[in-house]
Design goal:
Elements lengths: L17 H16 L2 H10 L4 E2 H8 L3 H13 L3 E6 L2 E6 L2 H17 L16
Antiparallel strand pairs: 1-3, 2-3
Helix pairs in contact: 2-3, 2-5, 3-4
GO molecular function: DNA binding; DNA-binding transcription factor activity
Protein name: Transcriptional regulator, ArsR family
Keywords: DNA-binding, Transcription, Transcription regulation
Amino acid sequence: MCENLRMDADTQVRGLGEEDQLVELAVEVFAMFADATRLRIILALRGGELPVNDLARVVGKSPSSVSQHLAKLRLARMVSTRQDGTRVFYRLASDHIRQLVTDAIYQAEHTLEGAPRLHHHHSAEGL
């Protein structure tokens, strides 16, 4: 999947109109969310930046596995890094990523019976 990733700014989808390009890129965004470990990493980063070892502990995977997923997320420009000495901290690259994942979790909650745990109901006036 990553070999074909076109979300980096240096690559253009050739032969497609602008809307078609955006659709193709949106498919790639959602494909990045299709992995449970990557989704858990993004959920963990909603609270702020974390180093690989902390992320590995939070998501219950090995640091090497988490590093591989972070590399894909970084290539997709969904996470960015900050170095502090020898430690590298990862954070979400934008609030858009945070919102997409939050909305995906809300949607998943709506498929379950009962009231969603994390969903905040909005009145018509508040929208």
